[in-house]
From TrEMBL:
One of its GO terms (cellular component) is membrane. This is Protein O-mannosyl-transferase TMTC4. Keywords: Endoplasmic reticulum, Glycoprotein, Membrane, Repeat, TPR repeat, Transferase, Transmembrane, Transmembrane helix. Pfam families: TMTC_DUF1736, TPR_16, TPR_8. One of its GO terms (molecular function) is dolichyl-phosphate-mannose-protein mannosyltransferase activity. TPR repeats lie at residues 481-514, 515-548, 583-616, 685-718. Its main location: endoplasmic reticulum. The gene is TMTC4. It is found in: Endoplasmic reticulum; Membrane.
Amino acid sequence: MAEWDASLDHIIPSSVLPPFWAKFLVGFASLVCFARSYDGDFVFDDSEAIVNNKDLRAETPLGDLWHHDFWGSRLSSNTSHKSYRPLTVLTFRMNYYLSGGFHPASFHAVNIALHGGVCVLLVDVFSVLFGGLQYTSKGRRLHLAPRSSLLAALLFAVHPVHTECVAGVVGRADLLSALFFMLSFLGYCKAFRETNREKTHSTFWVLLSILLGAVAMLCKEQGITVLGLNAVFDILVIGKLNVLEIVQKFLRKDRSLESPGVLRTGGLLFRMTLLAFGGAGVLYVRWKIMGTGPPAFTEVDNPASFADSMLVRAINYNYYYSLNAWLLLCPWWLCFDWSMGCIPLIKSVGDWRVIALAALWFCLIGLICQALCSEDNHKRRILTLGLGFLIIPFLPASNLFFRVGFVVAERVLYLPSAGYCMLLTFGLAVLSKHTKKKKLIAALILGILFLNTLRCVVRSGEWRSEDQLFRSALSVCPLNAKVHYNVGKNLADKGNQTAAIRYYREAVRLNPKYVHAMNNLGNILKERNELQEAEELLSLAVQIQPDFAAAWMNLGIVQNSLKRFQAAEQSYRTAIKHRRKYPDCYYNLGRLYADLNRHVDALNAWRNATVLKPEHSLAWNNMIILLDNTGNLAQAEAVGREALELIPNDHSLMFSLANVLGKSQKYKESEALFLRAIKAHPNTASYHGNLAVLYHRWGHLDLAKKHYEISLRLDPTASGTKENYGLLRRKLEQMQKKNV
């Protein structure tokens, strides 16, 4: 490799070749690219995996992490995605604990640091892959390809396809997996230090490498593929397998094939056995932990895998591979999600996109032929290792062994991109060697690095907020229903319902079976009192997905508003049937019973809501108010006190209990609760108005007058307060006349 590496001497200055400065430069480049994401929000999947994940909170036992998936669901659940990454979730939990809550900056800082760590380790990894494995007499590894390893690591550090992994907090799974992947590979290399004239291996380092591979898999499933790369490296670099020689002997029917050099290398068979049994054992344990088999995905997640024709499936899978290759070659069109119609199915060989498949396989076959048949031993080794690093980590996402839940995902290219960077660096070195225009090659390399860095900075900015992220996808995947859905959801959260409706309608148009878009659109229409269309949408949603509990509950709310009480009750009951622990549905069922004057049923429903969710303030409040209105003051007081013990800082509960205590003539305690509620929410007119009524009853007329006036300033239209204030003024006037 020395001559290939030397061909880059006009591009890589000798001053940055020492390992420390090379690693410093690579680490700094990775920081520059993604530092802009430091103060970003939690976006997209971060909400489910982090903010709404109970496994991050102290009240969840640490042991539960080993029985839950990445999103906090039990692995035994039929709805679990089976993404078993307990070590990644553990780092999220540590982040949450050390930063004192959900502060995105601390989570983003860890991701940026992890990417920098992976890039630094890659300098050593590429040094081995390009230059081979040689040690000094003191056991120190020689850096035989410093220019190539530095350039490849720089290309990796600034590759824009990594933005999703670094700027999206859930991408930490890929970063941690890659970190332990590199450590496993470097650990495997340490097993071959030269201790004497004969090369020996250290079983300890081989076993440690397998253990680190298992740790990588506990961060993300791809991590286990490092054992495959270790095996390829061992056979090619340590065993010095010459495929070309074996093929030639086979064609000549040479009997010397019976004992090729690779089999004579001491310990190779033993190491391959360790890797095979170690990998199989880890995968078996992983499969047992999954419990109920592979996850169930829907057609919108991966439409090609649901195609009836094997030919259609094969064509589309290969087209997906070509798209992944294009993202590595030209990472300009990036999108947070490539599903939901973003990439229409190829249904016949007449589709022009088949050209992409042909181009991909033309390049791959050319590289494979060179990797196997080149007369140059270094060229064969580098191309084979580069292809191995590109292909082996990608295999779990290839649909070859099992169905995956996506079409294209930029995050799964984090590890394979290292193989691409290796191949690109080798190509540039060959080009530089065979051309006299060295400055042109240098300009090309600097241009690639600069443009990729610029794209990383821009893309990191897009990942800082959901609004920017979702809108950036509209131009890349205009046919993606999920993109329109997420833009609409973001607008709805900001209160822009009119624009949200437009995007939700487009999502439903693009995917007429998109039940979540129907549900959200139905909710907005319900709030705008467009009840008829809302009912039609929600009815269609539950018809398409009969176990969609949220849609059943929302349908019940709409039917309740339409005074179709029996249908509403049935919808609520169906929702609870599909989601037994559904406190919000019990709350709405209680409201229905209250409207029907079925007070006992209403109280039971609200009690169920508070049992399932003790902090359900609305259910507690409704119980207190219903008991108060029906004259059960003692029971209302007991419920109010129970609620405040569970939610001591809820001002609405203070207000409701204060009303009950006032009617029970416990004026002092009632006053204290009113004042606490007002302190928490000083601009709530009803709080001042009801405190004024308490003072009015209590005989503190001046204080009553003061709070009536405050209440009317805050809400001049409150008729009840006006009437009470008028009564107080007349009473004060009468008292003044008597005094005169």
